[in-house]
Design goal:
It is a single chain. The protein is an alpha/beta fold. The protein has helices at residues 2-6, 14-22, 38-41, 64-74, 87-96, 101-110, 128-133, 160-169, 206-213, 241-246, 270-281, and strands at 30-35, 51-55, 81-85, 144-146, 149-151, 155-157, 186-192, 198-201, 218-220, 223-225, 228-232, 251-256. α5 packs antiparallel against α9 and α8 packs across α9. It starts with a helix and ends with a helix.
């Protein structure tokens, strides 16, 4: 069956694809090319296998996913569906929305991702009245006072600026509410904060789905969606191969960019601590 499957990839076989992917720069990247078993056998002679790409969470290393997508694009490997968790959901959503790999890379480079860790959306996003009065009403995110005392929000960051960034990135498909109707069918994976269960998002607003999948608990406030509070998908399933299989993938290219845990000598600044926290949770 393997020979039947590989022969369908134009001039390339699975071995060649793996060889090319292995030439990517080492960034703790693990690739698995999985051929599903009996499900694909019956129709493999009549049509090419359906290829699913699964992108894991991995914090700032999410750009590594772009390198994998570039290789697939260069080798003209068709991608029939994309599944993403956390940072992988951001890259996957853009690719599924029809952006080229070059455009994704440029958009990611130009964006000020550090601003996603602030709730002030920046003057460019604010109405004139808000610009005039901002200095008079400084507000700490999620902080409030009631008769019961001081209350902190569900996360250090409400996620307002992250929402603006994701809305801008997905603007071209803002009216698409069924992710099967995107140029490439897509699923984002989040975690139900109450039950710990994996939640697969395939309907609704694409930016909101990605925002939920990226909501690191305690850092970003959870996203309320369909009566559930959703947080980072890496907690429930950081490499959701099963979701791609359920979508009908015969061949699954799974990309895991999870870091090794750092030692105490490396945990000396906020970003390294934040990265370690992300790795532990995913």
């Amino acid at each position: 069956m393997t020979s039947q499957t590989t022969s369908e990839y134009g001039i390339y076989g699975i071995g060649q694809v793996l060889k090319r992917l292995s030439e990517l720069p080492p960034v703790c990247l693990v690739l698995a090319l999985l051929v599903s078993l009996p499900a694909a056998a019956a129709d493999s002679a009549a049509e090419r296998p359906r290829v699913g790409v699964v992108l894991s969470g991995g914090g700032a290393k999410g750009m590594a996913h772009v390198g994998v997508l570039r290789v697939l694009e260069e080798m003209r490997i068709p991608v029939d569906m994309v599944v993403g968790t956390s940072a992988g959901s951001a890259v996957g959503a853009l690719y599924a929305s029809g952006m080229s790999v070059a455009e994704i890379e440029q958009r990611f480079i130009r964006l000020d991702w550090l601003s996603s860790f602030r709730d002030d959306p920046g003057r460019a996003y604010k109405p004139v009245r808000r610009k005039q009065v901002d200095w008079r009403f400084p507000v700490a995110p999620g902080l409030g006072v009631s008769l019961d005392g001081l209350h902190l929000g569900a996360g250090i960051i409400a996620g307002q600026n992250l929402g603006f960034i994701l809305n801008e990135l997905t603007r071209s498909v803002a009216l698409v509410e069924d992710f099967d109707r995107l140029p490439i069918p897509f699923r984002a994976v989040a975690t139900d904060l109450e039950t710990g269960d994996m939640v697969v998002i395939g309907l609704g607003d694409l930016a909101t789905a990605v925002r939920a999948s990226m909501s690191i608990p305690g850092v970003y406030a959870p996203v309320s969606l369909d009566g559930r509070l959703l947080v980072d998908g890496g907690i429930a399933n950081n490499l959701p191969v099963s979701v791609a299989r359920d979508m009908g993938a015969d061949v699954i290219i799974a990309v895991d960019i999870t870091d090794e845990l750092m030692g105490p000598d490396q945990l000396r600044e906020a970003f390294s601590v934040f990265g370690q926290l992300t790795t532990i949770m995913t």
